[in-house]
Design brief:
The protein is α+β, with helices and mostly antiparallel strands and about 350 residues long. It is about 35% helix and about 25% strand. The protein has three domains: about 120 residues, no CATH class; about 110 residues, no CATH class; about 60 residues, no CATH class. The strands form four sheets. It has a six-stranded mixed beta sheet with strand order 3-4-5-8-9-12. Strands 6-7-11-10 form a four-stranded antiparallel beta sheet, with no helix packed on it.
């Protein structure tokens, strides 16, 4: 039976991406190659397609008008953006794909999808006619990027519990380029005066007493950093799981699971955390209401501003010890829920 739009939902496509590149034969491989080819075709003549010098693998990608690594580079491995392309494509031609999701037709379907994107590239990726397509992609990429930012905030809020008094804490909320801050997400100074670094990722852990099992991603353990920090949000239980462990040669992976001996774990906890929980709730709310969610770190106090005309919420998160941040978030969530009743 031919699959319908109802069958091809986010979970369906996400599972295709979760299978990975599969030595060049998986959906993710074909989709990635076709996306890169399409973006190169359109951005190279504008001198916006370049080798990323900060990327360890020197992968080429799209640079924006400010000569910075663009958020659009996330599209080539983003299942939710793929879902948007799928929906737009079958609306244009209901018979475009053959048995979508069947590995036998991955190459064919990926080519057809990106031929469609190529045909309507200017409509999708510019705001000359409409911004609805570009806005949808940007919000989806922003949501996944900010999920990463929330994991960093979670680790940040547990620094003292892990290392005692720390100072000179440095982090960024900008869109990444594969080499931000020389391969780590967060740096800080401990009481001895040493600068320590952490690479931060999303993932859950399982405590097996002698060792911890941490669910990871394809590029785990590739960073020259002192520590790794993983955090994950449980929307149902309203708790956050956090683990911070040393980067040591004794770390190893079994499939997508990192094995960490207990002696290398600096901190682990499953707990309710007000600020990350409220940030996560606000992020989910923004996603449902097509509100652009922006985290920034600028001089001044913590603040939350919402612009109803542009449908954009901007959070300045500078002081991670501000005890009023949870109340600020709670009030803004209530305000937005009332506004969008």
């Amino acid at each position: 039976m031919e699959k319908t739009l109802k069958d091809i939902d986010f979970n369906f496509i996400s599972k295709l991406f979760d299978l990975g590149f599969q030595k060049g034969k998986g959906w993710k491989s074909h989709y990635f190659r076709e996306a890169q080819s399409c973006f190169k075709k359109h951005f190279e003549p504008l001198n916006k397609w370049k080798i990323n010098e900060k990327d360890p693998k020197k992968r080429a990608g799209h640079f924006n008008d400010q000569n910075m690594w663009s958020w659009t580079n996330r599209i080539n491995t983003h299942p939710n953006c793929c879902l948007s392309f799928y929906k737009w494509a079958i609306k244009y031609d209901p018979n475009m794909f053959i048995d979508f999701g069947n590995p036998e037709f991955h190459e064919h379907n990926a080519k057809k999808m990106w031929e469609f994107v190529d045909k309507f590239f200017d409509l999708i990726f510019t705001t000359t006619t409409t911004d609805k397509y570009l806005r949808e992609l940007k919000i989806k990429c922003s949501k996944s990027w900010n999920n990463g930012n929330l994991t960093m905030i979670t680790i940040l809020l547990n620094l003292k519990s892990t290392f005692g008094e720390v100072s000179d804490v440095d982090f960024t909320f900008d869109y990444g380029d594969g080499g931000d801050m020389d391969g780590f997400d967060l740096s800080f100074k401990i009481s001895t005066g040493e600068i320590k670094t952490i690479q931060i990722k999303s993932g859950k852990f399982l405590n097996m007493k002698d060792e911890f099992l941490v669910n990871g991603s394809p590029n785990d353990l590739e960073y020259d950093t002192d520590y790794y920090g993983y955090a994950s949000f449980d929307d149902w239980e309203r708790v956050v799981s956090v683990i911070i462990f040393e980067n040591t040669p004794q770390l190893y992976k079994q499939d997508d699971t990192i094995i960490v001996k207990s002696e290398y774990v600096k901190f682990n906890k499953i707990q309710y955390m007000g600020v990350p929980d409220k940030l996560n709730e606000l992020l989910v709310l923004c996603g449902r209401k097509d509100i652009e969610f922006i985290l920034k770190k600028e001089d001044g106090d913590n603040s939350i501003d919402y612009n109803n005309e542009s449908k954009k919420i901007t959070i300045n998160f500078i002081d991670h010890e501000d005890v009023e941040m949870e109340n600020l978030l709670d009030n803004k969530i209530k305000e937005l829920k009332e506004l969008f009743k």
